[in-house]
Design goal:
The complex is a heterodimer of chains A (355) and B (625). Chain A contains 14 helices and seven strands. Chain A is of the alpha/beta class. A seven-stranded mixed β-sheet of chain A has the order 2-3-4-5-6-1-7, sandwiched between helices. Chain B is 53% helix and 4% strand. The chains are: A alpha/beta (355), B mainly alpha (625). Chain B: Belongs to the rad17/RAD24 family. Chain B: GO terms for molecular function: ATP binding; chromatin binding; DNA clamp loader activity.
């Protein structure tokens, strides 16, 4: 059984639900027969990957959907063996180089070289180039990005790159200028609600429009999340009622509880409890940045104007430090402790004003 | 066969005599002695050589061996400890149950072996000690040279473990042939454990279990010195549960008190004085030596012997530190810290620095601290209250004023033999219990982050590690304003961070391998897809244990904390290893998906934090102390 997200993913450019104008542009691009390297960027759950797959299908036909998993081995100059898993069809290759961390440069160079240096075997009716899809380009190291720039130029004849990133701010300008930028904005709440209705209709369910809107609002304009939530709601309670509870991920609830614990009491003892909870979140693979954001979102609710500003500053400062450092727990805890101190002061001032 | 054996005999006798000859000839100048005269000469020279040999021995014999305690009066160990050991011996010899194994632990040179030797001698027991054999590997070219093979002449390679087991069996079955006449039973002493067991203690454990099953096996005494190496520590070799299982009796020896030490030293000196005419060191010199030795009687006697080699007049100065530091010492001895390591670093940080430069000339003890003590020193953060504030700050910084520290923070870190990263993790894990208000916690933890940022780049880590440790430790101590009031004992825990990170990485890997076909970033995978998918499929598959469920859902039951208590003598090797792994992981990126690394380690924007900021904090701290 596949999830709704996968089941109802549009497979052709013509069947996309939103940003239709962009879809039209892409179609024209393919019709021209050739195109430059692409840099597709946008927030998570906006449909970047869907668009890329539609584009590939438009290029090569349904053959691109027959994917196989390949384990590729590489060796670094320092004789370290690397293994990376790629998804490939006869026409394209998809890889997430940030899987190998630090050695992504080797992967970027070697992989594209091996892929691009072989000509397409069956040239009749096919394109003369292959496509390499690189995901999480914004997570690549600087080294790898520079290597990528060089590779892009070198193998232009046999290979097109499609880069996929959440934001271009961490992609070096040299790459940005070599690619055709393609921004995929997050769908609006109304679009998401519509799509949810569509999906439910295909499943043969009736979804009240209020519920659809509520789910869409809760989804942070992330379509994947919205559809998953909708399916979870269906599992939880069907037939739908317009005011039923919307299922949110467990970790979010857990994080909210954590934040309210922080607001409840400000003492080293409480901080110890909170630390345990943070560890719990970390073992559930929640990235520290997400923890920061979630905590801030909850904490700010309890603060007044000026304090809000200060809390946000603290969060930004400590998240920045997190990126510079290596042990996330220090930084999260430093933020929580500073917030506690600040909030305590804020409460005390309020108390003294009251009397 | 016959001819062979005669040849062998001849050979052996020939070898013997040549050996003597050579020694004698070498000692005299008569290298060209005639063969005819040889018989007579040998006798003469042999006598001569013997005499020489004796003299030679007098010169090189260590006092530790020569004046080893002969009776319990000579022992420097406290009487009660001796009695403890003795009562165990008596009980085990009378065949009491559960008295088969004794474990003696304690720092080096506190008289563990000496006590056992003296007591077994007094009780007329055969003390049989295991000494690691120096097994030469079997060499086949011996045979090639000789071209003959003499049975029993080759060394059959046997593993150390087997040899040890045979030794245990032999000693329990047969009484020694050499020491006939003594009626008592055998007592096996194992001080020099076969090295195999440090790597794999479980084989030792099995062997001991087997050993207990045998009836009439002789009691075994293990002597293990406390050490900062985990693999050779008693806890590793003979873990508490095994001790429980085999009903070990553990007697912990303490460092020898200075009074007893002086007594022991004076005994040695008087014995030496009766033999030679050289002047003897004064009582004061002995006292100061006893103070510096840190309770290690062996090193103290060695130091004494070494010092008296030259002359005894300047002895006192050798043993004490320079005059300035002695003042400091006096002030400390008032505050009742008798341990040498303590007084070595007391006072304000500045004098602490002075003093480390004036190391004791002879007989100083290795000052490395056990992790437990080091953590305590930082977290309890003792300050010299009575001195008051020695370096006042300008008005606007009054809140930052602190009395001088008793310990120099850098010294504490230096003596832990531990990386800054792990040390700060230990501090982080344990610091919260030591703070009473959240403001100071915030300050302390902020300093931890400074230290972390300083150490983030593995290229500069070598250089910056010490600075980071300094920032962390000083920050922690500075923030801890109200601590000096004391407030009871608190347990120390091992840090959870590494286990948390390990688990999180494993979980990410599992998730990724489960969702290999899906084109997702890891963040989307862990924050959106996995939890929601778990929710959706929750009802359908009961008792599903796929990673998605385990990771996506939070169980109501709070995960029990896997903190391991830190023992007083615990050492830090395990965590250091983990740190190494992490480091390798960071450098290696992760050759396969098993060592997937946290993204922030590979973050591309890597400007170091403003270093000045850190130093500013450091400075103001220094002014305070």
């Amino acid at each position: 059984m596949s999830l709704w997200v996968d089941k109802h993913r549009p497979k052709e450019l013509g069947k996309l639900d939103y940003h239709l104008e962009q879809a039209g542009h892409l179609k024209k691009l393919v019709e021209c027969g050739d195109f430059p390297h692409l840099l597709v960027y946008g927030p998570p759950g906006a449909g970047k990957k869907t668009r890329i797959m539609c584009l590939l299908r438009e290029l090569y036909g349904p053959g691109v959907e027959r994917l196989r998993i390949e384990h590729q081995n590489f060796q670094t100059p320092s004789k370290k063996k690397l293994e990376i898993i790629t998804l490939a069809s006869n026409y394209h290759l998809e890889v997430n180089p940030s899987d190998v961390g630090f050695y992504d440069r080797v992967v970027v160079q070697e992989l594209i070289k091996t892929c691009a240096s072989t000509q397409q075997l069956d040239t009749t009716g096919q394109r003369h180039f292959k496509v390499v899809v690189l995901t999480e380009v914004d997570k690549l190291t600087k080294d790898a990005q520079h290597a990528l720039r060089r590779t892009m130029e070198k193998y232009m004849a046999t290979c097109r790159l499609v880069l996929c990133a959440n934001s271009t701010s961490k992609v070096i300008p040299a790459i940005r200028s070599r690619c055709l930028g393609l921004r995929v904005p997050a769908p609006t709440v109304e679009t998401i609600a519509q799509i949810l209705q569509c999906v439910c209709k295909k499943e043969g369910l009736s979804l009240p429009s209020e519920l659809a809107t509520r789910i869409a609002e809760k989804s942070n304009r992330n379509l994947r999340r919205a559809i998953l939530m909708c399916e979870a709601c269906k599992v939880h309670q069907y037939p739908f009622s317009s005011n039923q509870e919307i299922i949110t991920p467990d970790w979010e609830v857990f994080l909210q509880d954590t934040a309210s614990k922080v607001v409840e009491e400000q003492s080293p003892k409480r901080l110890l409890e909170v630390r345990e909870r943070i560890y719990e979140l970390l073992t559930h693979c929640i990235p520290p940045e997400v923890i920061f954001k979630g905590l801030l979102r909850e904490m700010v609710k309890f603060c007044d104007g000026e304090v809000k500003c200060e809390v946000t500053r603290l969060a930004a400062y400590h998240e920045h430090r997190l990126h510079l450092g290596s042990k996330a727990i220090y930084h999260i805890e430093a933020f929580i402790a500073s917030f506690m101190a600040l909030y305590k002061k804020f409460l005390e001032e309020n108390m003294s004003k009251m009397f | 066969m016959n001819s062979k054996s005669t040849r062998q005999q001849k050979g052996s006798s020939w070898v013997m005599s040549t050996f003597d000859d050579v020694e004698v000839f070498a000692s005299t100048s008569h290298t060209e002695s005639r063969v005819k005269k040889r018989q007579r000469q040998t006798v003469d020279l042999a006598r001569l050589g013997k005499k020489r040999h004796q003299q030679f021995q007098c010169g090189t014999d260590l006092w530790v061996d020569r004046y080893a305690p002969l009776s319990r009066e000579d022992l420097a160990v406290h009487k009660k400890k001796v009695q403890e050991v003795e009562s165990w011996l008596v009980e085990s010899m009378s065949g009491m149950k559960d008295r088969k194994f004794l474990l003696l632990t304690g720092p080096s040179g506190c008289g563990k072996s000496a006590t056992l030797k003296v007591l077994s001698r007094e009780a007329k027991l055969n003390l049989i000690e295991w000494i690691n054999p120096t097994t030469a590997p079997y060499k086949s070219h011996f045979m090639d040279q000789e071209n003959t093979w003499i049975p029993g002449d080759t060394v059959r390679p046997v593993s150390q473990t087997t040899q040890f087991w045979e030794f245990l069996m032999r000693t329990s079955k047969y009484s020694s042939v050499c020491v006939q006449g003594r009626g008592g039973g055998n007592l096996v002493c194992v001080e020099d454990l076969p090295n195999v067991f440090t790597r794999d203690p479980s084989s030792l454990h099995n062997m001991l279990r087997e050993y207990t099953k045998r009836s009439n096996s002789s009691p075994v005494v293990f002597i293990v010195t406390d050490s900062t190496q985990q693999s050779s520590s008693a806890k590793h070799l003979l873990p508490p549960d095994l001790q429980q299982e085999l009903s070990f009796v553990n007697i912990v020896f303490n460092p020898i008190a200075s009074g007893l030490m002086v007594k022991a030293l004076s005994r040695v000196v008087s014995l030496e004085g009766s033999r030679t005419t050289t002047p003897l060191p004064t009582k004061d010199a002995l006292t100061s030596l006893a103070n510096t030795s840190g309770g290690d009687v062996r090193s103290a006697i060695n130091a004494l012997q070494f010092a008296t080699k030259k002359d005894v007049y300047g002895l006192e100065e050798l043993f004490t530190e320079s005059s300035t530091s002695r003042q400091g010492k006096k002030s400390v001895s008032r505050s009742k810290s008798n341990s040498r390591t303590l007084s070595n670093k007391s006072g304000s940080s500045q004098s602490g620095v002075d003093r480390t430069e004036n190391q004791v000339a002879i007989g100083g003890k290795d000052g490395s601290l056990f992790l437990f003590r080091a953590l305590g020193k930082v977290l309890y953060c003792k300050r010299n209250k009575e001195k008051g504030i020695t370096e006042p700050l300008p008005k606007h910084l009054h809140t930052q004023e602190r009395p001088p520290l008793q310990e120099n923070p850098e010294n504490i870190y230096d003596k832990t033999s531990m990386g800054a990263a792990s040390f700060s993790l230990f501090l982080h894990q344990n610091c919260l219990a030591f703070f009473s208000d959240i403001e100071s916690v915030a300050e302390a933890v902020t300093h931890l982050t400074h230290g972390d940022v300083l150490m983030a780049e593995w290229l500069d880590r070598q250089v910056l590690e010490d600075y980071a440790a300094s920032v962390t430790v000083r920050g922690m101590m500075h923030a801890n304003e109200n601590m000096s009031s004391g407030g009871g004992w608190r347990p120390f825990l091992r840090p959870q961070w590494y286990s948390v990170i390990k688990e999180s990485q494993q979980n990410t890997c599992l998730l990724k391998s489960e969702h290999r076909m899906e084109p997702l970033t890891s963040e989307e995978l862990t924050t959106v897809l996995a939890p929601m998918k778990a929710k959706i499929l929750q009802g359908k598959k009961k008792g599903n244990t796929s990673p998605t469920f385990r990771i996506g859902l939070f169980s109501e039951v709070q995960r029990q904390t896997r903190c391991e208590r830190l023992d007083e003598l615990d050492v830090n090797t395990s965590i250091v290893e983990e740190e190494e792994q992490e480091r390798l992981g960071a450098a290696g990126g992760g050759s396969n998906l098993h060592t997937l690394s946290t993204p922030q380690q590979f973050n591309t924007q890597d400007s170091l934090s403003d270093p000045e900021e850190d130093f500013r904090i450091d400075d103001s701290d220094e002014e305070n102390t």
